[in-house]
Design goal:
Blueprint: E1 2-7, H1 12-23, E2 28-35, H2 39-49, E3 53-56, H3 62-68, E4 75-78, H4 80-85, E5 94-97, H5 105-113, E6 117-120, H6 123-140, E7 144-146, H7 149-157, E8 166-173, H8 183-187, H9 191-194, H10 204-212, H11 214-227, E9 234-238, E10 244-250, E11 255-259, H12 265-273, H13 287-290, H14 304-315, H15 319-335, H16 343-353, H17 363-383
Parallel strand pairs: 1-2, 1-5, 2-3, 3-4, 5-6, 6-7, 8-9
Antiparallel strand pairs: 8-10, 10-11
Bound molecules: nicotinamide-adenine-dinucleotide (NAD) and magnesium ion (MG).
Length: 386
């Protein structure tokens, strides 16, 4: 029995993780559930899964959550510190990190500090704090298991391979809903259009990131840290059907890929079952039904976010943190109809240009840079200077 804490339980990955738990009651036991604001869903989940603790980051939601769980034996806490406390439960073997954005960095670092196995969906944690996270993971000798489907695919392709046999990592991208749009068409797209992903059903922020290709950029940086590869050895290929989740090219030219339906339950389950494999969470892949799969190059003119992410990744230091913060603010502004779709990359560009790079030494330093970059991006949005 593996005891888990699920951070970000009420989101898309959180709900899929609980589906995996539901299907494997003899293998997984939920000890703690956390959420940002959604106390109603968190309460429902707590009544079904009976964790020892639920924690909600939003302190204003404490009363309602506590009320909804009165009479149950579930302990209820609120605030950012309560979310951190979720990784201190006993007994605990693994943490599923499914908070969205850089808000996940401190909880992941806390889980590493507790020596827990980390099943990581929260890619922004590695984008922002990759060097510190990887140092801490190595020092503690922990398993950092990717949940992101591309990284799960690469991880699966790499099982039992000598590290020096890997020549290149090839990350696939669906291309998002605007793959075939012209730049002129992109200028006018609405949040509703951007939120309709052709293949994947995900949270709002990552769905917009998929439409701008920033999601792929963040994944390139995530792959750099997880698999210790230089940026020139990480390639992105657009594959609109999302059946091949990523590939590894080996030193002898052989290429190994992982295939599956576009559904996060399989990569989530593999992170939890690794190195074992459990019963399939999905119907078997049907190649004949899929019929054909295709590939094309991403268009850097139309999707500047991908190029900015490579640039920030190569620069290293605080630049990926700045990129991520500017992106989080711009995506939220786009969803709130304060800016247009093409202003997302424009604001990220200006925010990146307003920082001088620094070496990263502490999490507090990163959180400070994150806050500064958010302020700069927010000011650019309100002033309309982009
Ligand atoms: P989501 O928006 O659906 O859910 C986010 C969760 O985090 C919610 O439970 C929310 O309450 C919680 N949260 C948000 N802000 C918080 C805060 N400040 N403090 C504490 N909790 C907070 O997002 P999602 O789509 O499930 O994505 C979660 C993470 O997984 C992201 O980093 C995303 O990039 C990554 N990911 C998602 C998918 C997917 O299919 N959804 C695939 C691969 C990777
Ligand atoms: Mg992904």
């Amino acid at each position: 029995m593996k005891n888990i804490a699920l951070l970000g339980a009420t989101g898309s990955i959180g709900c899929s993780t609980l589906e995996v738990v539901r299907n494997n009651p003899d293998k997984l036991r939920v000890r703690a559930l956390t959420a940002g604001k959604n106390w109603q869903r968190l309460a429902e989940q707590a009544l079904e899964f009976r964790p020892d603790l639920v924690a909600i980051a939003d302190k204003d939601a404490y009363g309602e959550l506590k009320n909804a769980l009165s009479g149950s034996s579930v302990r209820v806490e609120a605030g950012d510190e309560a979310v951190l406390a979720a990784v201190e439960m006993q007994p605990l073997d693994a943490v599923v990190a499914a908070i969205v954005g850089s808000a996940g960095l401190r909880p992941v670092m806390a889980a590493i500090g507790k020596g827990l196995q980390i099943c990581l969906a929260n890619k922004e944690t590695l984008v922002v704090g990759g060097s510190l996270v990887m140092q801490a993971v190595r020092r503690a000798g922990l398993d950092l298991l990717p949940v992101d489907s591309e990284h799960s695919a690469i991880f699966q392709c790499l099982q039992n391979c000598p590290a020096d046999s890997v020549h290149k990592i090839i990350i696939t991208a669906s291309g998002g809903p605007f793959r075939s749009f012209s730049r002129e068409q992109l200028a006018d797209v609405t949040p509703e259009q951007a939120l309709k992903h052709p293949n994947w059903d995900m949270g709002g922020k990552i769905t917009i990131d998929s439409a701008t290709l920033m999601n792929k950029g963040l994944e390139v940086i995530e792959a750099h840290w997880l698999f210790d590869k230089a940026y020139e050895d990480i390639e992105v290929v657009v594959h609109p059907q999302s059946i091949i989740h990523s590939l590894v090219e080996f030193s002898d030219g052989s290429v190994i890929a992982q295939l599956g339906w576009p559904d996060m339950k399989l990569p989530i389950q593999y992170a939890l079952s690794w190195p074992q494999r459990w019963s399939p969470p999905l119907p078997p892949l049907d190649l004949v039904k899929i019929g054909s799969i295709t590939f094309e190059s991403p268009d850097p003119q139309k999707f500047a976010c991908l190029a900015y992410a490579y640039e920030a990744g190569r620069a290293g230091g605080i630049m990926p943190c700045v990129l991520n913060a500017a992106n989080e603010i711009s995506v939220a502004a786009f969803l709130n109809r304060q800016i247009g779709f093409l202003e997302i990359p424009a604001i990220i560009r200006k925010t990146l240009d307003s920082f001088k790079n620094q070496e990263v030494t502490t999490v507090d330093q990163l959180l400070e840079v994150d806050a500064q970059a958010r302020e700069i991006a927010a000011a650019l949005i309100t002033e309309g200077k982009h």
